[in-house]
Amino acid sequence: MEAVVHSTVVQILVTGGAGFIGSAYVRAVLKDEFAGAVGASVTVLDLLSYSGNLANLPVTDSRLNFVRGDIGDAALLRDLLPGHDAIVHFAAESHVDRSISGAIPFVTTNVLGTQVLLDAAREAGVGRFVHVSTDEVYGSIDEGSWTETWPLAPNSPYAASKAASDLLALAAHRTHGMDVVVTRCSNNYGPHQFPEKVIPLFVTNLLDGKQVPLYGDGGNIRDWLHVSDHCRGIQLALEKGRAGEVYNIGGGTELTNRELTGRLLEACGAGWDMVRPVEDRKGHDRRYSLDITKIKNELGYEPQVTLEQGLADTVTWYRENRAWWEPLKARTGR
Ligand SMILES: NC(=O)c1ccc[n+]([C@@H]2O[C@H](COP(=O)([O-])OP(=O)(O)OC[C@H]3O[C@@H](n4cnc5c(N)ncnc54)[C@H](O)[C@@H]3O)[C@@H](O)[C@H]2O)c1
């Protein structure tokens, strides 16, 4: 199948655009960072759940239209979707620990909500639909790296709900011929990440002189990807990805949680006495590792932000933006 170049996308609907990654994508589009979307207008559809935050968006930008609403609201979508050339679908319940305490919102938004959105996109004749998925759908891998054809074997309720939505998106292509592309990315980090995820949680704790909780033996391995590299990969998939295909997006930097903790301690000028070992997460996947050969070869993707630079910039951002994260931590009691 030939690559379809969607280089003149003028009206993009971004679900979950007030969250961490969605807002980074929206800010990049509005700053004309992507050659294929220069001058594009963006509609953000976001429920503003606990992790959605209008402070993440340039709300006064005339190219941005913000709509507060649920991706599972079919009537709202019927009115909103016509006229859009593409959808980039980020909206989700996104935190594994929350899915362990209660999985229902994950099924409601990630599975049901995605199907409602797919149906509405088809009815409205929206063009390309980029479904933002995760490497967690593959499960855990002791050696080697996952290619896109690896069987899905999710372990947490979060990962299982993402696997379901990922497969529903692919089914919409195979069954209805929808122009769907799925991206599966590794652990993101960067500015504006809700301070429940490990990097912003650890950094903000350390900036406040508080200890950080390290799960189990700290030997779990993750591949770290700067959010701006993820957004570049998503845009490549939107512009040049082949319909019905999956593209892994990774950063190529695998670290144990212990190694990551060491780097964060150093960046914040703290020692190992600031680390509090805690009982391991239930069903904690041991290792994630993505093979990103396909997106490199087909779409020319290459991560640009080194972990050293990305972590340093991220720590600086949290240091300089207390007004952004202090109210969030106070609200969640973390
Ligand atoms: N953060 C990561 O490391 C990572 C890694 C791989 C994949 N992903 C995927 O990327 C996407 C974005 O993740 P994130 O880290 O930015 O999450 P996030 O929690 O920061 O943002 C999610 C956004 O979705 C919105 N939302 C939730 N339910 C909604 C609903 N029913 N209708 C409309 N909006 C709703 C929230 O208000 C929020 O703005 C998710 O699909 C996630 O599974 C994230």
From TrEMBL:
Keywords carried by this UniProt record: Lyase, NAD
Family the UniProt entry places it in: Belongs to the NAD(P)-dependent epimerase/dehydratase family. dTDP-glucose dehydratase subfamily.
PANTHER family cross-referenced by the UniProt entry: DTDP-D-GLUCOSE 4,6-DEHYDRATASE-RELATED (PTHR43000)
Annotated catalysed reactions: dTDP-alpha-D-glucose = dTDP-4-dehydro-6-deoxy-alpha-D-glucose + H2O
PROSITE patterns for the chain: ADH_SHORT
Protein species of origin: Actinoplanes regularis
Name of protein: dTDP-glucose 4,6-dehydratase
Any GO BP: nucleotide-sugar metabolic process
Coiled-coil intervals: none
